[in-house]
Every structure is written in structure tokens, then in C-alpha cells.
Write a structure and sequence with these properties.
The complex is a heterodimer. Chain A is an all-alpha fold. Helix content of chain A is about 75%, strand content about 0%. Chain A has 2 domains: about 1-80, Up-down Bundle (Four Helix Bundle (Hemerythrin (Met), subunit A)); about 125-165. Chain A starts with a helix and ends in a 6-residue tail after the last helix. Helix content of chain B is about 80%, strand content about 0%. Chain B is built from 4 helices and no strands. The chains are: A mainly alpha, B mainly alpha. Chains A and B meet through α1, α2, α3, α4 and α5 of A and α1, α2, α3 and α4 of B.
Chain lengths: ~170, ~110
């Protein structure tokens, strides 16, 4: 049953990712990518990482993809006028990505020896445990991430200003 | 012990993540719209996130999931700054075609 859910989610995510790459209109690409993100959130639920799943939906589907859609609407790019790369470029890209896939799968195949033990803790992805780890072992990276966000916010506002006078 | 650890081998997550990552690489290499290229980068980051979360669950170690949070932070910052730069490029060139951005070639 769990394997069936995993395979269904995996197939849907791969198909929507391919549709995202091949969609002519950028708006369709954004919508397909949102579907991919929802299936990845389903994988997180399957892995008993519920907090991660909720944060993933809020951050990606709720914030980042809305930002993408907002920029698309702002620039009025929701038409199919994107010039395509030539067939040679597309073939080269397909060969490069396929080689990468074959290399990664070949390197990983049969070399991973992880078996869950009977005393493994299924509560590891719940918010209580994650919060404890985040605010004890990882409190310094957490604060640095806050500073990074502040810098990114200031940078985005400065870059987007119309006439910048330094 | 979780049901998913008993019934889904961890290799399946490796394969799924590799496929998603390769689709992202293919998109970055073949698309010309800068917004779609940024979206493909998000897809690649998500493939890595999925693999980190899977290993974290299979090893019952929370540090992998903490790492996913930090990758999400970087992805959000990257999307904000990248889209800001993109709007600026569009204002100057009236296009988001990345093949126009070859001023440094000559």
C-alpha cells in the first residue's frame, strides 16, 4: 500500500516536472511546478516529516511560486512568444542531462546500505523534535539564516528600484 | 518502525531524486526564458531536499531535515533576488530571453 502511494506520487511528480520543462507558456510551467511541489509534499507526509510537508507547501506553493506568477503577470509574459533553442541545442541538453542521470543512478545503484532498524525513532520529523534540534544544536546557523534573509530582502528592494542614486 | 521504511527501499528515493534533478538540468540547458530557468533551479533544489528528508527518516536523524530548512531559506532568498534582477533586466532589454545577455562576450 505504501509502495503504491510512493509510486503514484513519483510518477505524477516526474510527469508534471517534464510538462513543466516542455510547456510553451511560462504560466503553465508555473502551474505544473506547483503540482510537482504538492507531490513532493506528499512524499514528505509519507516519510512522516509532517512539519516539513506543511512548511514546504507554505514556502513553495504559497510564497515562491506566487512570486513567480506575480513577476510573470507584471512583465506580461503569459503568451507563447518565447523563442525556442535550436534542435541541436535541445538534443545536446537531452544528452547531457541523460548522461548525468545515468552516471548518478549507476554510482548509487546497489551502493547504499541503509536499513531501518527496529528501534528507529518514527517521531523524528515531528515539530517537537525538530524544534528542539533547531534551537539547540543549530541555533547559530538559524540566526545566520535570518541575517541572510534580511540581506536578500534589502538586496531585492535595492535591485528593483527604478532610479538608483548611490 | 515506520511503514515506509519497511516497504519502500531507500534506492527508490535516490532514483526519483536523480530523475527530478536531471529534468531540472535539462530545463536549465534548453529553455531560453529566464523565469523558467529559475523554476528549473527550484526543481533541482527540491530533488535534493527530498533525498535529504528520505535519508533523515531512514536513519532517524533529525539533522537532515534541519538541512532541508536551510536549503529552503537559501531557495527563498535566491528566488527573491533572482526575480528582482530579472525585472531589472526586463526594464533594460524588454525581454527575458537569456541569449540576449551576451554583452561580456566581446
Amino acid at each position: 500500500m505504501t509502495l503504491a502511494i510512493f509510486l503514484t506520487l513519483a510518477v505524477i511528480s516526474v510527469i508534471t516536472a517534464l510538462l513543466m520543462v516542455f510547456a510553451k507558456s511560462p504560466v503553465h510551467s508555473v502551474l505544473y511546478l506547483i503540482l510537482t511541489f504538492f507531490t513532493i509534499a506528499g512524499q514528505y507526509v509519507l516519510l512522516n516529516a509532517q512539519f516539513l510537508a506543511v512548511v514546504h507547501i507554505i514556502v513553495y506553493a504559497g510564497a515562491i511560486m506566487v512570486l513567480f506568477l506575480f513577476v510573470l503577470m507584471l512583465l506580461n509574459l503569459n503568451k507563447d512568444t518565447e523563442p525556442q533553442k535550436s534542435a541541436g541545442w535541445r538534443l545536446a541538453g537531452a544528452i547531457a542531462a541523460g548522461s548525468l542521470l545515468v552516471t548518478m543512478v549507476g554510482a548509487m545503484h546497489g551502493s547504499i546500505q541503509i536499513a531501518g532498524t527496529e528501534q528507529s525513532n518514527p517521531q523524528v520529523g515531528l515539530v517537537e523534535n525538530l524544534g528542539k534540534v533547531l534551537f539547540t544544536d543549530f541555533v547559530v546557523p538559524f540566526e545566520i539564516a535570518g541575517i541572510l534573509f534580511l540581506a536578500a530582502m534589502v538586496g531585492a528592494v535595492l535591485v528593483g528600484k527604478k532610479d538608483l542614486k548611490v | 518502525m515506520l511503514e515506509v521504511i519497511r516497504s519502500v527501499p531507500v534506492e527508490y528515493y535516490v532514483y526519483l531524486s536523480s530523475v527530478l534533478f536531471s529534468i531540472g538540468v535539462f530545463g536549465v540547458l534548453t529553455r531560453r526564458n529566464a523565469i523558467v530557468v529559475l523554476m528549473c533551479i527550484e526543481l533541482m533544489l527540491n530533488a535534493v531536499n527530498l533525498l535529504l528528508a528520505a535519508f533523515s527518516t531512514y536513519l532517524s536523524d533529525a539533522q537532515g531535515q534541519i538541512m532541508v530548512f536551510f536549503i529552503m531559506v537559501v531557495a527563498a532568498a535566491e528566488a527573491a533576488v533572482g526575480l528582482g534582477i530579472l525585472v531589472m533586466i526586463y526594464r533594460n532589454t524588454k525581454s527575458t530571453d537569456i541569449s540576449l545577455l551576451d554583452k561580456l562576450r566581446n
